[in-house]
Amino acid sequence: MKEFIPAAKRPLTKRKPLILLSRDSSNAMMGDMVIAMLPLLVMACYFYGSRPLMVALCSVAACKIADCLCNWIARRKWMFADLSPVVTGLVIAMLLPASIPYYVPAAAGLFAILVVKQPFGGTGNNLFNPAAAGFAFVAVCWPQLVFHYPQPLERLEATGEVTARLMEGSAHTLKLGGIPSIDWQELLLGNFAGPMGATHILVMATCLIFLLARKTADWRIPLGFVFSAAVFSFFFSRIPTSPLNSVCFELFSGSVIFTAIYMITDPVTSPKTGWGRFLYGLLAGLFTMLFRYYGGFEQGGMFAVLFCNALAFAIDRGAISAKEYIRRVCVELVNFKK
Amino acid sequence: MMSIFRRGIKPEQKKEPAINREIQVFTENVAVSRLISEVKDLKDISAEQIIETAKIAEIFDELDGKPLWEKLESWSGQCKEVAADAIDDEPYLSSRLVLLIQRQDEVASGLKLCGKALGVAPEKQFAAVYHSLIAFSTKIPDRDDLVIRRFGGKYPIDLAEREKGEKNGVLYIGTGAMVHLHRAVFEMRRQTTAFVTLAGDCVAAPFNAELPLGMPVKRALEFCGLSDEPTYICSTGSLTAEPILNPETTYVEPNTKAILAFHRYDHAAPAPCIGCGRCMDVCPQHLPVFYLYAASLHKQASFLWSMGYERCFECGACTYACPSHLDLVPVLRQGKELAFASEKIVHMDVKEDVPAQKEAVPEIPAGLSEVLPAEEAGQPAQPEVKEISIESKEPEETIPANPPEEWTEPQDILSDEPELNDISKEEAAEILAMQETLFGREVKKIKQTEEQETDNVESQYTPESDEKELEPVETIEPSPIIQVSQPEEAEPEREPEPLKEESSPVPERSDEAKESEKITEPEETIPAEDEVPAEPKPVKTKKPRKSRTPKKADTAGEAAEEKESPALKPEVSPAAEEPEKPAVSKPVRKKKEPVKKPAEAAPSKAEADAASTETAKAKKSTPRKKAAAAVEVVPTPEEHAAPKKAAIRPVAKKAKTTVKRTPSSKTAKDSQTKQSQEVKES
């Protein structure tokens, strides 16, 4: 009756999609990430006053407005309810010191969205993690501002210049070969000079449990990351102390744990296969430690994340091919036995 | 034990009220056909006879819609185990499991027959049941002769076990087919019904039913009673659902396992794919669904080849798991078609060499499809298919060479194809005007002949004559005149011309029902093209025929309803049709019945010989059918045609005007006028 149109030219069927669907939604996954970062913001406000709130607001606003504007330019819907630029803004804010002037997080947010996310296709299509790229951009542009932290529990002005004393973080001490003079309780609670959201280790561990339970973050990636970072710092310690101490200091200084939980687990940029994810985490941990040891900056997490984002597709392809190969080998063996 | 590690999803089962209720039988149709002499016991019948019986009784396996005899024949001798598949692992479905509970004798006997037909020992026959850890606690009565094997784990159990079974020589046949086989062999009944679960949000009291094949879905939903207006109706499953867009022109088929009606349709604006990878986590075949989806969307066939696209058996787990609520299965299906089509083209020239190679190197593993086009070789492409059978049908049927008609159908009805279908009324008028100026007289001639045709047809073709010719929903007793071979002879003639069935003159219309049995697909598309209320686009063409469209839908619906009894084709209780039609619009029916009975008392007495037994039997059935049977009944078409024609022509002009109104009202009026006329005549 009708002529046969080959599948390549046929439009997709206009059938109603299934009614029986899981109750989850992708925006809810982003919402989980936001929820997991709010306790960190609360802790930062506890330590530093209301300024962290302003910093976060600055970066989130920059990201969100840029994202909506770009969606309009690209003739997609505005997507006001999309939470993924909010996640980007919060991640950038958490990595910066609380005393940072407001133009820095704004610049980071704008770079992240306008250069790294939207030109590649917007939400769901970005190749590189926009938060990591934004933070790397400001780290390279204003290293003095980004890597000097105020002491916790000092009042910081919410507006105008910050007059508090700024000091180097513990990662800088490690880079010089020294041992940071921080008690282990303070280390876990975050009561030391460091990025405003990335120092609260215990709180972050709780948030990790929350994300794993909700299946927003795949468990293999943080596991691989922390495992390889720990193994590397155990065997190649750069500070004159016991290897276990070295592991503690390396992992809890800078942004290692924060990267492991929030930056590298981004579903868009990470591989999708199980084994691929594990390998991805391992590589990211290794590269983080290498950047910390031999790179120009005291932190290496954001660069390692960008590096592994580039490798993510190759890792996936490798994993799929390896699975197919193993499957065929098994089938061959079974047929051979028959 | 290892089923814990099986990939999949665990949706809520939601089978509860339906599975504990009795199967409601819609009709008591006893379609008897001359199959073989009556069989009392299993040992009286041989394997070939069982297969022959299955062929004559036209039994279909509801798992995949294939004819049972084909399955039995192709697997006989190579089958190690046979299973009655009562694994209902999809939510809401329970039609197979409830058969195992409530019709256990028939299922057990059917299983033994299948075992005998395949040559499988009784120890290797079992019934397969889904036993989920959190499932309902339904007790399946134990029997000595029926072994029940339980399967556990996550959702695509049925499909996964069937795939494995093809690899290992275990044949799964649905319990419905077993019941029908038992009835065919021991009670000489053809398959004229299907066991269907009627459930969903909109169904107040879900239950399982035995519905006649060809019943419109709308009628089935009315049978079960809707508590709310459904916005989404689907059949054959809940996770492997086939959405039904037009319930009036979609019919119950042998592989309809469920009709589900939902009233909530909460779909937010479609979100983009965020690459979370959950689809890949739940895929039972370990396929890279994310990449297959992206490649199918962007039509990259070479990418698809490398990823094992043919192993997807469309379970729907990925669609369930996707948090962005993307509709993955149809896109993957298109990707499969694309990849298969393009792969075939590349390997086509190797086809002739392959048989020689096959003999030389017999142990080429089935998985290396890039070396050999295994499908073309006749060798199984998938490792699951047995290597013994060279011309086994399984690989060809799972991946058809050209996208088969079942797949093109949704395209035809649903797809937005601007090249073919998308012409608005203004454009159509423009095109016609252009054609007229270009072709002038010829167009006018064509129009005139079309109008003449419709005039002729309408004069001969009134709805009540249609009713009389078609077979009844419930059949009563076989008349000795009738032979089963008749419909089979007639059908091949009619096959090439499905479009013309409406315009055919009176004597051929009795074949409508017969061909509607075999050819349901063209019928579905014809009314669907004209009567798709959901689509805003105006339908193209057929303006002169527009007045007949309500009739067409009716006759198609009725014809499909009657398709179960070709054996009783000449024997017509035409007004058995009438209760079906008034059910479409209820108020008319109530008016009709009291008027009918006094008017028809006289004619029924006049023609009573064969009819008396029929009416007697009809009285046993529901009062609705009683009223139907009380109307005139004609034993043979020849006797019927003559007085009817005499009756029709004078009435024709009146009928014409009423034709354009609603179908049921016009039939009521026409039948009344006609009956009054006949009363006068007699």
Word description of this protein:
The complex is a heterodimer of chains A (338) and B (682). Chain A has 338 residues and is mainly α. Chain A contains 14 helices and two strands. A two-stranded antiparallel ribbon of chain A has the order 1-2. The longest helix of chain A has 37 residues, at 301-337. Chain A is globular and about 80 Å long. Chain A starts with 25 loop residues before the first helix and ends with a helix. The model of chain A is unreliable at 1-14 (pLDDT under 50). With 682 residues, chain B is of the alpha/beta class. Chain B has three domains: 19-262, no CATH class; 278-406, no CATH class; 451-681, no CATH class. Chain B contains 30 helices and ten strands. In chain B, strands 1-7-6-10-8-9 form a six-stranded mixed beta sheet, with helices on both faces.
Main sheet of chain A?
Answer: 2 strands, antiparallel
> Count of DSSP helices of chain B?
30
Let me know the number of strands of chain B: 10
Biggest sheet layout of chain B: 6 strands, mixed
Radius of gyration of chain B: 27 Å
For the termini of chain A, the CA-CA separation is 47 Å
| Portion of residues within helices of chain A | 55-70%
Count, helices of chain A: 14
| Largest sheet: spatial strand order of chain A | 1-2
Q: Could you please say which CATH topology of chain A applies here?
A: Ammonium transporter fold
Total number of beta strands of chain A: 2
Give the structural class of chain A. Answer: mainly alpha
The N- to C-terminal Cα distance of chain B equals 76 Å
Please identify the top-level CATH class of chain A: Mainly Alpha
CATH architecture of chain A: Orthogonal Bundle
Radius of gyration of chain A: 22 Å
Low-confidence stretches of chain A: 1-14
Strand content of chain A: under 5%
